[in-house]
TrEMBL record:
The record marks 127, 343 as: Interaction with tRNA. The active site is at residues 101, 200. This is tRNA-specific 2-thiouridylase MnmA. Pfam families: tRNA_Me_trans (PF03054), tRNA_Me_trans_C (PF20258), tRNA_Me_trans_M (PF20259). Keywords: ATP-binding, Cytoplasm, Disulfide bond, Nucleotide-binding, RNA-binding, Transferase, tRNA processing, tRNA-binding.
Length: 384
């Protein structure tokens, strides 16, 4: 990270962003912090969490002797991230708001604010990812973080390449344990603060209960694949493929195991469930996207790559196909469980993250993963 830069760190109140700022200071950079408020409503829990985060960020900034700025992106977040997520949910898909937040807030609004209002050369976050600098005029290569249990390159797959050129990830070479140790040794006041979990705007609240404030319930039947009704659901938007908990039907009804969501049938407003974690109807041999966001030159047709269809999934080998309209299809060597429309298909060549795109369709195993065999409400791969 040389020569020295004027860098604005997104201080969230957590230990990761605190150590990111610490490492930049030790490397000789001019560092300031920026606390972003990206969500607000009349919920007391939301308010208290934001106040606690701000207090922690202020304590870190004071300890490091750096200035802490504050900015409110809540209105833009609602418009560009939350509204898009609600639209996807109403359409029966399962969006990934954290990927949208990185693309439209942290590495767009935050980056522009830091550069235009605070005179920053670069911005930094506590993401566990690495950037390999490229020759002048070319975008850097996004690489997995060294800690396989914390790698967050998946969440950065939709960020604009020009934004990555101004981004810094000081934790990319570290493990989480090393970050905790460094925070403790430096006396950072939040060294023992627990990691935040849950979707960015929901936190650890009940997902379905939270969504019912914005999406009206639309009850319908919970059906087996044979059409037998087992219970009632609250609305298709409140469920995702592969889900087990919250169905209210237990493991009985003659099933060999617990029931899992396999599909959403919008014509009948029905939630289709199957018994058993590894039921064939939960598997997909192929996933296809709409327009794919490339961070690197697209590999040729038939390229052997690895893919993830969710965070923390082990990288899965398969073969790339290019689709019309800028989309891709990825045919897995081994069918994947609960590959969910709306989630992101992210492609890797070794540690190199090539980019990502929202899953628009899947095809089940059989017929060599033949396109056009999509289930229920899922759009045919062939139609993309």
């Amino acid at each position: 990270m040389s020569p020295p830069e004027r860098t604005v760190v997104g201080l969230s109140g957590g230990v990761d962003s605190a150590v990111a700022a610490l490492r930049l200071l030790r490397a000789g950079h001019a560092v300031e912090g920026l606390f972003m408020k990206n969500w607000e409503d009349d919920d007391t829990l939301s308010y208290c969490a934001a106040e606690a985060d701000l207090a922690s960020a202020e304590a870190v900034a004071a300890h490091l002797g750096i200035r802490l700025h504050r900015v409110n992106f809540a209105a833009a977040y609602r418009e560009r991230v939350f509204a898009a997520a609600l639209e996807e949910l109403r359409a029966g898909r399962t969006p990934n708001p954290d990927i949208l937040c990185n693309r439209y807030v942290k590495f767009d609004l935050f980056l522009r604010h830091a550069r235009e209002q605070l005179g920053a050369d670069a911005v930094a976050t506590g993401h566990y990812a690495r950037l390999e600098r490229a020759p002048e005029g070319r975008a850097p290569r996004l690489l997995r973080g060294r800690d396989p249990g914390k790698d967050q390159s998946y969440f950065l797959a939709a960020v604009a390449p020009e934004a990555l050129a101004r981004a810094r990830f000081p934790l990319g070479e570290l493990t989480k344990d090393a970050v905790r140790r460094e925070a403790l040794e430096a006396g950072l006041p939040n060294h023992g603060r627990p990691d935040s979990t849950g979707i960015c705007f929901i936190g650890e609240r009940d997902f379905a209960q939270f969504l019912q404030r914005y999406i009206a319930p639309s009850p319908g039947p919970i059906l087996t694949e044979e059409g037998r009704e087992l219970g009632r659901h609250q609305g298709l938007a409140f469920y995702t493929l592969g889900q087990r908990r919250g169905l209210g039907i237990g493991g009985g009804h003659g099933a060999a195991g617990p029931w899992y969501v396999a599909a959403k049938d919008h014509e009948r407003n029905a939630l289709i469930v199957v018994p058993g974690h590894d039921h064939p109807s939960l598997l997909s041999a192929c996933a296809a996207t709409g327009a794919f966001h490339w961070l690197a030159p697209p590999p040729p047709e038939g390229a052997r790559l690895h893919a993830q269809v969710r965070y923390r999934q082990r990288p899965q080998p398969g073969r790339l196909e290019h689709r019309s309209g800028g989309g891709v299809a990825f045919r897995f060597d081994t069918p994947q469980r609960a590959t969910t429309p709306g989630q992101y298909l992210v492609l890797y060549d070794g540690a190199h993250c090539l980019g990502g795109g929202a899953i628009a369709a899947t095809a089940p195993p059989g017929r060599s993963g033949a396109p056009g065999a999509a289930r229920n409400n899922e759009q045919s791969v062939e139609a993309l």
